[in-house]
Amino acid sequence: MFRRAAPELEVYLADARRQVEDALDRAIPPLGTPPPRFHEAVRYTLLLPGKRLRGILTVAACELFRERGDGAVALACAVEMAHAASLILDDLPSMDDATLRRGKPVLHAVVGEANAILAAVGLLNAAYAAVLEAPGLRDAVRRQAAACLAGAVGAEGLIGGQVQDLESTGHKLDLEGLEWIHSHKTGALFLAAAQMGALAGGGRPRAREALHRYAKNLGLAFQITDDLLDYSGNPETTGKDAGQDRERTTFVNLCGIEGARKLVDELIDASVGALSPFGRRGAILRALAEMVRVRDR
Amino acid sequence: MFRRAAPELEVYLADARRQVEDALDRAIPPLGTPPPRFHEAVRYTLLLPGKRLRGILTVAACELFRERGDGAVALACAVEMAHAASLILDDLPSMDDATLRRGKPVLHAVVGEANAILAAVGLLNAAYAAVLEAPGLRDAVRRQAAACLAGAVGAEGLIGGQVQDLESTGHKLDLEGLEWIHSHKTGALFLAAAQMGALAGGGRPRAREALHRYAKNLGLAFQITDDLLDYSGNPETTGKDAGQDRERTTFVNLCGIEGARKLVDELIDASVGALSPFGRRGAILRALAEMVRVRDR
What we know:
By secondary structure, the first copy, chain A, is mainly α.
């Protein structure tokens, strides 16, 4: 999905991803107390191969301020769990009615709709548990990080965006309406991922504001490149149903391919610009943004 | 649903219920930011008339140790929100496929399945937000209370119980299997309600252990009286589909009416017995347990 990154970034990404995935694997043990089938359902979507971009954003944001500890990794896991929960819900028959996700059958096709819904709710719940038990963090930080997650998931975030997205099915949206949906459906969790990392790192409010601008622009750019990939991609490379988004308003059918790419360039420029207060410490986040810029090219 | 209680208890219950319901009403404003339809969906189940037994348990548990403050009321709201979320999910077409809840059409019949699922997830999320922002509590208490909620909702609680309940549909359960399901589906939230109240009140571990025994026995007794009411009740008094539970194993079809009532008596006796360390301070909790004992008689 990403082009080959610079060698040092590639090492960083592989290492951070492995650390987040190992922690996810431990967080939901394969054979828990009954009911084991539930654990398998939860693990199915959570452990599908993915980029873990949101989780990596959390640990990289922490590292602006201090070394990544187990606490930051736990917060990264929480972000990935909330994201996995949202994917399961989006795919449900009553929502997008998808058949493929990351190249595999969607969860409800495997374990049935009821178990898929319960797995999604269980993942969101496990995300909170991970934040609340995050090792090595002060209770004030855990509380702020969990409140941050709550803001990203609720009516002002993922859920609000999804409700509005469903409401607007069949209506033509303008750019403002489309941006509203995606700043909630996608952007809110990018913002929370970065803020939670900064909280784990002990970042001050002013630094967190700069990071906020970075993540806000990055999240929207990411969604636009998703639309671009979906438009041009086939299920083998996107891992999703082909052209599933063509029936709805996307950045591509609203702005055209070139217009959408121009928008991505502007957003990534703004995103990278917001990192200037961090100087060299912002190198990883800058490189992540540059990777998102060329995702579809 | 409850017989007339002693006058002083009636005043207490009416007052506590009003306070919890006012706080719920404020927690989910009728006209928030977009999407308003989501807020309406969330409010629909949350504000249906109910006994608020779990929320009242939270404030009454707090009052074993100190006066009920806004913090304890916020935790009571969180418990009621998590409970409302579980009702919405239980009623879904892929689960119990119910038509009535508290005498009104189930939420998915009113707003559609997708919005109902999102409302349930939003309610669980709002429950966490309520705990994390609970006024007047220390961060350590908020964190412990939120962790308590996470335990009650997850695989070891509501969700685990619901998964197992769905798995066992069509199979005959023994008493142990039935108790396992209900100690998770119902009991876990009773336990958390009491523990969260005790945390808000500053209760010590030994007192919290006594309260744990009280709530554990009360929760199971409550579920058995639910089965008794469902068996004998009609939809007008139970507010649920009549005899919906006859197709599944219940305490009534496993133990008979007299056997189930005997079990309730034993559990309520154990529940009341656990309150002895609290002396006169346990009067409200004792009265609540006695009300549950005679719910169906």
